[in-house]
Amino acid sequence: MRCLTVATPTGDVTLTEDDGAITRVNWGGGGEDHSALLDQAARQMAAYFDDPANGFDLPLRVTGSAFQQAVCDAMRAIPVGYTLTYGEIARELNAPAQAVGQACGGNPIPIIIPCHRVLGASGLGGFSGAGGVETKVALLRHEGAAGLLI
Predict the structure, then answer these.
(1) Rounded to whole angstroms, how far apart are CA atoms 109 and 125?
(2) Which value, to the nearest 10 degrees, does the dihedral of the CA atoms of residues 16, 19, 22, 27 take?
(3) Closest CA to 4 of 67, 59, 24, 20
(4) Would strands 84-85 and 118-119 be described as parallel, antiparallel, or unpaired?
(5) CB neighbour burial string for 7-35, b if at least 16 within 10 angstroms, e if fewer
């Protein structure tokens, strides 16, 4: 495993690569490794924060249950500037909204897998990244999320 820390407007994040795929994004520092993939991920992270239309095109690997992977796939399908609710994803996956919320909270690759684009039925819902809901709001504002009153 290799880790590289990059500065972002939401604080330092550490990108983790394992066996040719990005497997984690954590808030905080400590990673000083370089590889072609980590350097590419760092460039794409900077490009995203310059302009959210610059998406991510990286090999990702989500470990965990098939349900966790399905929720992460559903989050990756949400376009920049749009949001879905936990309930909407739950209906798509034929699962309880609470289970979707827990899977969103367990997203191992936030920002790149945009769990910040998933909201509660009557509010923002939670966010497990550093800064909590304030960071979620900052990411949604950065993306110009359609129809949000935040």
Answers:
(1) 18
(2) -10
(3) 24
(4) parallel
(5) ebebeebbbbbeeeebbbbbbeeebeeee
pTM: 0.94
Give the residue carrying structure tokens 């969103």: 104
- Active-site positions read 115
Give the integer Cα–Cα distance in Å for 31 and 3.
Answer: 4
Q: In a 10 Å sphere around its CB, with 0-12 CB exposed, 13-18 middle and 19+ buried, how is residue 131 labelled?
A: middle
Separation of alpha carbons 60 and 35, rounded Å? 15
Q: DSSP secondary structure string, 27-64?
A: ES---B---HHHHHHHHHHHHHHH-TTS-----B---S
Find residue 85's DSSP bridge partners.
119
Per-residue pLDDT tens over the stretch 43-83: 999 999 999 999 999 999 999 999 999 999 999 999 999 99
Cα angle 10, 16, 22; round to 5: 100
User: What are the structure tokens assigned to 33, written together?
Assistant: 């490794």
Task: Identify residue 29 by its one-letter amino acid code.
Answer: G
Q: Which of 42, 41, 43 is nearest to 58 (CA)?
A: 41
Q: Which residues are CB-neighbours of 134 under 8 A, at least 6 positions away?
A: none
